[in-house]
Amino acid sequence: MVFEVSPFTxxxxxxxxxxxxxxxxxxxxxxxEVQPEGVIMEERTTLIKDNKxxxxxxxxxxxxxxxxxxxxxxxxxxxxxxxxxxxxxxxxIALTYWHNESINIYTHLIxxxxxxxxxxxxxxxxTHFRTTGLIDIIMIDLFLLGGFTCLMMSSTFHCLKCxxxxxxTFGNKLDxxxxxxxxxxxxxxxxxxxxxxxxxxxxxxxxxxxxxxIACATVSLSDRxxxxxxxxxxxxxxxxxxLSALIPIIAGAFRYxxxxxxxxxxxxxxxxxxxxxxxxxxxxGVRFPERVAPGKFDIWGHSHQLFHVLVVVAACCHFRALLGxxxxxxxxxxx
Length: 335
Ligand SMILES: [Zn+2]
Hints:
There is one protein chain. With 335 residues, the chain is α+β, with helices and mostly antiparallel strands. The protein has two domains: 8-96, no CATH class; 102-334, Rhopdopsin 7-helix transmembrane proteins. Helices cover 58% and strands 9% of the residues. The chain has a four-stranded antiparallel sheet, with no helix packed on it. A hairpin with a 3-residue loop joins strand 3 (40-48) and strand 4 (52-59). Helix 2 packs antiparallel against helix 3, helix 2 (102-125) packs parallel to helix 10 (303-334) and helix 4 packs antiparallel against helix 5. The longest helix has 32 residues, at 303-334. The structure holds zinc ion. Zinc ion is lined by residues 104, 154, 158, 304, 308.
């Protein structure tokens, strides 16, 4: 779909539209103004040949009514939209001012950096036991890599989604693939420690997880399931994927007893993790709190931001579970 209205207004010194665009630039100046009604205006003034001035005034933020149809997703968020940029540079510049995707970008970009640093330096951060080996580093790195992939794909998507419908569509698919990567890497890594002495159990449940992951990835990449109508069902499928973590816990309880499984899989932390994921997905699905006060949570505090924060909290709970399970295995081997 082509959006006809240009957000740019070209004015000369005396307010007339007469300066050619291809004149060589001599000097540039940029000014940002906040209008009385709260609309942020960005003015770029360029001094060009023969002391002529080209002034470009652009509104930075737009309302739900002004953005093109393809950018509309949540009608309870009224203001703070970055209009379709068609420019990678303008998407990057949008990182420097607040708009309704800013918190979505940074709530995943900053933790992604921490995940990456932890992965690079886990040799020094991890408690080392006499029996700690390469496989431990691989399993812990697997989870950290899954977390980094998820958070980085998500923040990149939120940064570039104002570019164009094509970029937003592709980025959204990568965003879902990132979630799949996080769930698969989380489950396989903890299963390794939970069933460290039972290879058939580890392989069975890991295969189940990977199969579920492939199914979810396929649904995420298929255009048919990407419409707004399918959003609650997509979210439910991902929740079901997360809930499939219960299967190895139940199987473990039958095989080893509840008490032993509780410590092997660090079930306390896995439960916290599940609660945070489900709460995040629920808020995202029902669009709370912006649903009860449309326009009040445009920049800060809307459901997608809460979802992002809860995903990070849940991932931290999983990391705690993983470290606990890792320590338990090695303490037992040493004893
Ligand atoms: Zn997101």
